[in-house]
Amino acid sequence: MSRFFDWTPDDNPAEILRPQSADDWRGLHERYAQAGDGAPLTRVLELAQEHGVVAIVIERRYIDADYRSEHAAFYSTTFRRYPSVCHRLHFFKSDVADDLTNLESLNDAYVGYSVMRPLRHAPVGKTMMAAPPELATGTFCSTSETVHLFGASLTARGMPFISQDAQFLRCAHAAQWMVLRHSSLRYDTPKWLTADVQAAALGGVVVGRQVPSEGLSFHQMLVSLDRLGLSPGRLPLPRSRADSRAAGHLSLPGVLCRHVNSQFPVIVVSDSHAWVVVGYTVSGTGPMHDRITFYRHDDAAGPYIKVPDPWNEPNAAHTPWALALTPLQRKCYVTAERAELLGSLWLQASADQMKTRVPESAALHGADVTFRTYAVPSWEFKRSLARIPVGEVAEMYRLAHLPRFIWVVEALDRDALESGKPDVVLGEVLVDATANHVGTHDDLTSMIALHVAGFAVSQSADHERVQTLTSPPPEGLYPSGCPAATA
Amino acid sequence: MTRPTTTVVSQPGQPAAGTLKDAVPATPSADDRSRFDRDMAALVTAEREADELSRAIKIH
Question: Quick one: closest CA in B to A400, which residue?
Fold first, then answer.
């Protein structure tokens, strides 16, 4: 398979594989990866098995725009010839017909695809596969893509993944590409190819040869993400569990979860490696630091890799989790941390006051309040208003003029949250994501609205008209509007 | 010419006197305001620290 002419040996449109044994899966791995390499492919095939895949359709002449861009920029310049076409593996949980006539009916059984580059040292190209079943109850970044396959339209859902080739692309490029492709699919931002990412990162604080790439500086990542339409922030991550517990709103789970909650996958870097935190699960009882499990897309290891303990990594490349690069959408001028500080300050005071006014039957009465922060497109927030049991408040939000993105700080009932109930929300604050002047505790110009226990207040942007409404406090809690939790 | 009939839709709620700060149920306590100031200062410090840390990092 490694030779140029073996890559597309005939004109057959596709192959169908029905792996049944470990040897079958191993054979598929050996077909594309050379011995000793291929951890991402191992994980892709493992993920397929976790989903119960029984059939794989291989498109053998797939023109992958990302790989084609790499080919044009690099692989076409080498003395040895590399094919410019890829294979694309489509994974199904139900069997496909030998003549491929039933593909359209298999949409529910479609797990996703993985592009195989004709590079035996780094075969896994663009990949879009569903999150593992164990993440189904977790919080994770996800988007969807329509896939056209022999006349059928299928939907792939998940978080985009790609591996580096260790020549043209490094982990820093791959991590950025994953974030940018997710952004493109979810937020309609431009679709950048791998070669675009490579080109955008050139120059600046150079730390080695650029082509073939010896790696990037953190500053190059900041610049390239900005050039490609995002607005990355950066924060240091606590180096130990004890430091994290003491860090308050800057704890490692705090920083990462605010962004995953927002469907903003976070790039984490150590001294030498970069990966993307794409989700988390919380289980058991006790301190959050002991209950949370993260999942990452690691271009060198594969998609959806479970990370039980960020401060006790078996691989030195992942030590320490030094910095979080938070790729905010362009118009999220306010950072998650600033939004949470302001929103929680005023929401806590309002909740404490309202507790003294509501009857014992109200959900707020006796509640232990904690907070969750996320950004969400305002149209998406408005689309989910049916979950709010106070009709007047939902109506106030529906008719409010809102920026494209808002930060939402939710007041949650801690007991309901820790017991895993779907209804956990007591109230919320809406913060204008474009108001980047949050700095003092008494500056509320960025706050659009506040609601807790049936009392709500809003202010308009242009005329600064302030309106209040008072409704009977709801007896029950209501579901979160967190976009990642409902992905 | 007959002008079309228009309906102006407004947000529900009663106009409140003063600002948003005047209309919220309560003002944060002095302790909470002090904590906000400390947390905000820590955030600014952390962002500066990130800039320092990032200079030594080569990602490959």
Answer: B11
**What CA dihedral angle connects A13, A18, A24 and A26, to 10 degrees?**
60
pLDDT score for A435: 92
pLDDT of A438 strictly over 80: no
> Cβ contact (<8 Å) for B21 and A450?
no
Q: Burial letters for A102-119: b for 16+ Cβ neighbours within 10 Å, e otherwise?
A: ebeebeebbbbbbbbbbb
Read off the pLDDT of each residue in A270-297 and give the average, rounded to a whole number: 92
CA distances from A169 to A34, A116, A122, A125, A264 (A): 19, 16, 11, 11, 22
Compute the distance between CA of residue A364 and CA of residue A424 in angstroms, rounded to an integer: 11
Rg (CA), chain A: 24
**Residue A467 contacts by C-beta under 8 Å, 6 or more apart in sequence?**
A396, A457, A458, A459, B11, B12, B13, B14, B15, B16
Extract the tokens encoding B49.
């620290």
The predicted structure's pLDDT at residue A121: 92
Give the tokens for residue A398.
């529906």
**pLDDT tens for residues A350-403?**
999 999 999 999 999 999 999 999 999 999 999 999 999 999 999 999 999 999
pLDDT number for residue A297:
98
Q: pLDDT (tens digit, 9 = 90+) per residue, A67-95? A: 999 999 999 999 999 999 999 999 999 99
pLDDT at residue B1 is higher than 80: no
For residue A436, is pLDDT > 90? Answer: no
Main-chain dihedrals φ then ψ at residue A418, nearest 5 degrees: -70, -20
Taking CA–CA distances from A212, the nearest residue in chain B reads B60
Read off the pLDDT of each residue in A114-142 and give the average, rounded to a whole number.
95
- Chain B residues with CB under 8 Å of A452 CB are 25
Q: Note every long-range contact of A23-29, with CB atoms under 8 Å and residues 24 or more positions apart, other chains counting.
A: A25/A49, A28/A56
- How many C-beta neighbours within 10 Å does residue A462 have? 6
d(CA A238, CA A206): 27
Residue A369, beta-bridge partner list: A413
CA-only gyration radius of chain B, Å: 24
Relative to beta strand B14-15, strand A466-470 is: antiparallel
φ and ψ at A14, to 5 degrees?
-160, 165
Distance CA A288, CA A245 (A): 9
Nearest Cα residue in chain A from B17? A466
Strand partners, A466: A459
Residues of B in contact with A249 (CB under 8 A): 39, 43
B55: three-class secondary structure by DSSP: coil
Q: Which residues in chain B are contacts of A362 at CB distance < 8 A?
A: none
- Collapse the DSSP code of B58 into the 3-class scheme (helix H, G, I; strand E, B; otherwise coil) and give the result: strand
